[in-house]
């Protein structure tokens, strides 16, 4: 069984010809991701060439006019979206309606009403969105013939396959914890994004990890704003059969100030790091004081795995 | 972005929601003129982006011109809960028969829109929810945006609007939704939505929005001309202003250690690590700011960031925490050295690099042989060192 998406699944990139799209498509290809196409109506019929990007050979990526066309031509199971905020809603709706099963939205700065619309539409179509404003998804495989996927901007090569699942609201803290726990390896790491509304919540990610037999323990990284951490913790308390360790950022964040991420804000006394930590600890989830201590808690769990 | 009451009213009026007559004024001369036009008695209300202004003396009733001038002279220079008053709203005083509360907001959990309402309005809804949770109704509008007059009527009935008010309440709910949608709001709150009029004359009674709070989605500014018409003349913090002009996420705090990093989560975590170190060391040292250089920052961005932080007299030491993903630690290192070429500072800078080009970045820093530069191996070590150096420097001052 694989998490979120099949190993080696065919993937398209929306916004492939932009600066971000070009840079990260090259990276994803080098990481072994099976990128089969891009979408840009103005450049349809052309090809983007990435010298030496596919196992040392040039990768020729065809550009299609629409997601529908790209899916029909390539059988794409996922799309990675690098389209700028003002065009993002249109791009995501197009991917949803084309029946692409997994849409990873990296774009930061999408209006919340647009995201809410896209997420509701995706739910109606049985499609999963990850993000927006997220670093994406990495799945790990130990079969070189059937590699995992790197969808988004998570650096390749930090970790290999192992028993840990990681879900996070933050990009760089994801890399930090991956680095700290590289000795054990991961089944999958995903950033759910720092916006007020996201397509896949911390809770939904934990559900996936709980159903995955190869994932033995989870790291959850949260931050101030909203109550997604509490909802995940309360669900986990009732349903999760695997241990979780957590980290929460933003104890020193003042009320009413947005801390970088659109969703990272304490308002009306709600969404504080303290509240989150207390709820998590009440249901038996250890919360590290620093990323380093969080990793230490995970090492203790790993030491006791049979 | 939060709006002032007078701006929020403007958006309600544009959609035809009844509000009392009111005029915004910035000095007592204009207040007197406005008060004469509105008539007496009237209400003089501080315009400030924070709640509980009434208890702070920011809302006063004026019976005549003299009182209006006196009230405005006491309110205009006020700073309420740390927020400078930007002016006053001179509003018609209404005879209130009953107060409702209605708001529409983004619901992060159900990922749609939340209509929160109670027939016992007036005070803060959090208070009502605490004391009479059963009186607060929570309903939802789909994120796909289907909400019409029939839905609004049904909702008005469920909220508990008195029979005679249901039809008008439904109209107001629908208009609030229009305000919310058209303006890319994240919150539209009317509190109180008051029933006003002569208690003995049924035909004189109607619903009226006596106070409103609206927040707009900053991410949607691109489709509203950058929200230019709501630009706030009050610059709350010169450093925040400077950082915003350069497109950086910056929040000014009260401590001594300037913090710069890449990624909102990592920077928040760095702030917490500095506070923790200050506690551990018994010095009470705290972070002076949050500054996120973002993903893939160039040397130029790093240089600007460090310049802003070093210019802050509150900053005694600096902690730079970078985990290079897209960001290259070489760029960051070069940015730090560029800033130090231009600024002569005695403030120590503690740097922790990991990830993309970390070793190379550290080599560049160390080869500069600058006594201000300190390198730490882990984020925790760096925070401890930055806090310790800040305490020492502070002691020397």
What does this structure look like?
The complex is a heterodimer of chains A (306) and B (397). With 306 residues, chain A is of the alpha/beta class. Chain A is built from 9 helices and 14 strands. Chain A has 2 domains: 11-130, NAD(P)-binding Rossmann-like Domain (Rossmann fold), CATH 3.40.50; 158-303, Succinyl-CoA synthetase domains (Rossmann fold, 3-Layer(aba) Sandwich). In chain A, 33% of the residues lie in helices and 24% in strands. In chain A, the strands form 2 sheets. Chain A has a 7-stranded mixed beta sheet, with helices on both faces. A 7-stranded mixed beta sheet of chain A has the order 9-8-11-10-12-13-14, with helices on both faces. In chain A, strand 10 (161-168), helix 5 and strand 11 (186-191) form a beta-alpha-beta unit. The mean pLDDT of chain A is 96. Chain B is α+β, with helices and mostly antiparallel strands and 397 residues long. Helices cover 37% and strands 25% of the residues of chain B. In chain B, strand 16, helix 10 and strand 17 (349-355) form a beta-alpha-beta unit. In chain B, helix 2 (28-38) packs across helix 3 (65-75) and helix 9 packs across helix 10. Chains A and B meet through helix 4 and helix 5 of A and helix 8 of B. Chain B: It holds the Pfam family ATP-grasp_2. Chain B: Belongs to the succinate/malate CoA ligase beta subunit family.
Q: SSE layout and pairings?
A:
The complex is a heterodimer of chains A (306) and B (397).
Chain A: E1 11-14, H1 19-30, E2 35-39, E3 47-54, E4 57-64, H2 67-74, E5 78-81, H3 85-97, E6 102-105, H4 112-125, E7 128-130, E8 136-139, E9 150-152, E10 161-168, H5 171-180, E11 186-191, H6 202-211, E12 217-223, H7 228-239, E13 244-249, H8 273-282, E14 286-288, H9 291-303
Parallel strand pairs in A: 1-2, 1-5, 2-4, 5-6, 6-7, 10-11, 10-12, 12-13, 13-14
Antiparallel strand pairs in A: 3-4, 8-9, 8-11
Helix pairs in contact in A: 3-4, 5-9, 6-7, 7-8
Chain B: H1 5-14, E1 22-25, H2 28-38, E2 42-46, E3 59-62, H3 65-75, E4 79-80, E5 83-84, E6 88-92, E7 96-107, E8 112-118, H4 125-131, E9 136-141, H5 149-159, H6 166-182, E10 185-196, E11 206-209, E12 212-216, H7 238-245, E13 249-252, E14 257-261, H8 264-280, E15 289-292, H9 299-311, E16 317-324, H10 329-342, E17 349-355, H11 358-367, E18 373-375, H12 379-396
Parallel strand pairs in B: 14-15, 14-16, 16-17, 17-18
Antiparallel strand pairs in B: 1-6, 2-3, 2-6, 4-5, 7-8, 7-10, 8-9, 10-11, 10-12, 13-15
Helix pairs in contact in B: 2-3, 5-6, 8-12, 9-10, 10-11
Subunit structure (chain B): Heterotetramer of two alpha and two beta subunits.
Binding site for Mg(2+) (chain B): 191, 211
EC number (chain B): 6.2.1.5
